[in-house]
Amino acid sequence: MNDNDRPDLVIYGSPVSPFVRKVAGVAIEKDVPFEIEEVNVFNPPQWFRDISPMKRIPVLRDRSVAEEGPEGTIADSSAICAMIEAKHPEPALYPANPHARGRAIWIEEYADTALAPAGGLGIFRPIFFAVSKGEEPDVERARATWAEQMPPVFDYLESALGGRDFFAGDALSIADISVTTILMQIALVAHVPLDIWPALAAHYEAMQKRPSIAGPYAQADRAIRKALPERFDLT
């Protein structure tokens, strides 16, 4: 690839990460070119440690600012998405209405701090991390998480939708992308029956059809299926 053809934005991480997929989803919705450069977060190289003080993915590099070093990089998916919105404001993924905007940011935060720990630490990791190490998946822990920790989170998201198509305002926002990409982390390793939460189920079904969600998820799914051919039933 000619240097002039390279996109400005580089996402360091892996599509297996829901936070990488969140950033990718934002870029795709805005038709902003980007590339993903894979980084092993469990044993990251020194250059990545220098730009990610918490050793987490994703980190974004904007080559139009700097080609290397800490300059031009931003860590944390929420900060990255806000930066992309500021640089590429159309179509807007943060509502113009102040209340709707605040609500979108809050739902993003809830997805990151409530949905992600429950689904990621309680379901995805006990299954996939074990399988990837050649160990038996801790399906009982995943089932306990699904039965005990997930219902209150789903209850809140169901009430937050209130029967609407989107979480904040009347159009797609960062809230919808955040919830879906993190919810689909569970779907990588297990079935996700949402019949008890009809509004969330309808939102989830509609969001899965968007190219911004389906494309990055397909990349993650291909990687997961190599080690885990079948999804588990947690009910």
3D structure, described in words:
- The protein is an alpha+beta fold and 235 residues long.
- It has helices at 18-29, 46-51, 77-87, 98-132, 139-148, 150-161, 174-187, 198-208, 211-227, and strands at 9-13, 34-38, 59-62, 73-75.
- The protein has a four-stranded mixed β-sheet, covered by helices on one side.
- Helix 1 runs parallel beside helix 3 and helix 4 packs parallel to helix 7 (174-187).
- The chain is globular and about 50 Å long.
- 39% of the residues are buried.
- The mean pLDDT is 96.
**Count of extended strands:** 4
**What percentage of residues falls in helices of 4 or more residues?**
40-55%
Order of helices and strands: EHEHEEHHHHHHH
Instruction: Work out the radius of gyration.
Output: 18 Å
| Total number of helices | 9
Distance between the termini: 48 Å
